[in-house]
Automatic annotation (TrEMBL):
Residues 452-519 form the FBD domain. It comes from the Eukaryota. SMART domains: FBD. Residues 1-32 are annotated as: Disordered. This is FBD domain-containing protein. The lineage of its organism: Eukaryota, Viridiplantae, Streptophyta, Embryophyta, Tracheophyta. Pfam families: F-box, LRR_At5g56370. It comes from Aegilops tauschii subsp. strangulata (Goatgrass).
């Protein structure tokens, strides 16, 4: 529609001024209209106009506007632009005036562009990084908006073409390099998800990126790299002194570049590491440089060194992997998860070489609510468990999960000690194993005084990989006779005989509401 021209009138034939209205069939002197296009809506309001012989019909006006819209630059450059509302007003003129003096105003009302800057940044951060950069084609307002995004997520999968994987890696690395080089403003969150570890580390990309991040007040770093190739943590990482959350995968920590405790990560509250190799006591030194660290989650730890971790701020601790020496002191933990795995070079060998101060560590806890010990960690238990000598109760302990051999006197004694010192225990799960088939038959659980009610508040119990051994049956009887409020007992068996299963259901129970569920081991746990 050209400026200075009334766009349309409603009806055909005699051009009666009373019929000059909108595209809607009902309405008053000012009726709204909408013209819909594939990716946009033209909306506005028609006003009554005096009769004029040059007024086109409404259908003609729609066709003209539609043709003009298809020729707009943004329509051609960006196939799916942001929704726009175009308000068209045709103002009434004095009777007899020239049609060239008729006024028309077109207002481009971009709702999203008028949002607060923080909200626009949040919208861009929710988009894939390539689409966020693509918004530069929308308008001048959006040309450089992507350059000030505060949260960045680079995913190698977004650059997959299905042809040459190496070429995809190069395009991904080049895009990330250029994005960070052109970025202007603080970066609060940086996430990298890639399998191109070798190209990232050997090409120096990661070191350049980390150096840029250390100068941008970074708060959160997540490097989700492939576990096939490990890389050394860049020294510039330890200059990001405003970090609050860190997640690193497939990396190597050395004490070479660690900062002193006085210049560490004073704001870091969560540290998550996966498939990490530790040299020396770098892990303990790293924790010491984080005075406010509350959550430490390590999966796939590999260390032959002496790891000494001490903290009075820890609330949640999870360590799984292979290590030879671990010394822990974190008295205010609420959740503990420790799992010791066997290294592939030591399978079948004794695990006594793993030194872990399990007894004094357990005895030092005061606020613990959840305890999980998996793998071979109970083989580190001393014959005389230290907690027996201390009149201490874990009043907040409500959940226990153990991987245990109930036929081993040392491990059975450890479990008994925990049950005795957890009066408010409500849930526990045991993954039953038999590491030594030559263990003699023992009457450990039968010898315990039945008048001592260890499971007074236990409600739910899970026994996994139940084989029906003498020790396991003895513990099961001891449990059912000493749990007055037990509601559910789930048993995942490993192909038990039907007669054994029937005998299990006939065992005497202290709780009249106790329900025994026997399931086959057909799913992982």
């Amino acid at each position: 529609a050209k400026p200075g021209r009334v766009l349309a009138y409603r009806g055909s034939g005699q051009r009666d001024p009373s019929k000059l209205a909108s595209s809607t069939t009902d309405g008053g002197d000012e009726d709204p209209f909408q013209i819909r296009f594939p990716h946009a809506i033209l909306a506005g309001r028609w006003e009554l106009q005096p009769q004029h012989p040059r007024l086109p019909s409404l259908d003609d006006a729609k066709e003209r506007v539609s043709s003009s819209a298809r020729r707009l630059p943004h329509y051609q450059l960006f196939p799916k632009p942001l929704p726009k509302a175009l308000t068209v007003k045709v103002y009434q003129m004095d009777h007899g005036s020239s049609p060239t003096k008729i006024c028309k105003s077109v207002v481009d009302e971009d709702i999203i562009s008028n949002l607060p800057e923080a909200l626009r940044d949040k919208i861009l951060c929710c988009l894939p990084i390539k689409e966020a950069v693509g918004t530069c084609l929308l308008s001048r307002t959006w040309r450089y908006t992507w350059g000030s995004m505060t949260e960045l997520m680079f995913r190698r999968a977004d650059f997959a073409s299905g042809n040459d994987s190496a070429d995809d890696d190069r395009r991904f690395l080049k895009f990330t390099d250029m994005f960070l080089f052109l970025h202007n403003g603080p970066i609060l969150k940086f996430c990298l998800n890639t399998v191109a570890n070798e190209m990232v580390s050997t090409g120096g990309h990661l070191y350049r990126w980390m150096l840029m991040l250390s100068r941008n007040k970074i708060k959160e770093i997540q490097l989700q790299t492939s576990i096939r190739d490990s890389y050394k943590v860049p020294s510039s990482f330890f200059s990001c002194d405003e970090l609050e959350y860190v997640y690193l995968r497939a990396c190597v920590f050395t004490s070479l570049h660690l900062p002193p405790p006085s210049k560490g990560f004073k704001q870091l509250h969560t540290l998550r590491l996966e498939y990490v190799t530790v040299e020396g006591n770098s892990l303990g030194d790293l924790v010491a440089s984080c005075p406010n660290l509350e959550k430490l989650n390590i999966r796939g730890l590999c260390s032959q060194s002496n790891i000494n971790i001490r903290s009075t701020k820890f609330k949640v601790l999870k360590i799984e992997g292979w290590f030879t020496h671990l010394n822990l002191h974190a008295p205010y933990l609420t959740s503990v998860w420790i799992g010791l795995e066997l290294n592939s070079d030591t399978v079948g060998a004794s695990t006594t070489r793993c030194n872990f101060n399990l007894s004094p560590f357990i005895a030092s806890l005061s606020d613990v609510e959840t305890i999980r010990f998996h793998g071979h960690i109970l083989e580190c238990v001393e014959r005389e468990f230290l907690i027996l000598k201390q009149p201490k109760l874990f009043n907040r302990l409500t959940e226990i999960s153990l991987e245990i051999n109930l036929g081993d006197l040392k491990e059975a004694n450890f479990a008994l000690c925990l049950f005795q010192h957890a009066p408010n225990l409500r849930f526990f799960k045991l993954k039953l194993i038999s590491r030594n088939s030559m263990v003699p038959r023992v009457h450990f659980w039968e010898s315990i005084d039945r008048d001592v009610c260890l499971f007074q508040n236990v409600e739910v119990v899970g026994l996994f990989d139940f084989t029906g051994s003498f020790a396991e049956l003895g513990f099961l009887k001891f449990l059912l006779e000493g749990a007055p409020v037990l509601r559910k007992l789930g048993i995942i068996d490993k192909g038990l005989d039907r007669n054994v299963l029937k005998n299990l259901l006939k065992l005497r129970r202290a709780s009249k509401d106790a329900e025994i569920l026997i399931l086959e081991a057909c799913f992982p746990h």
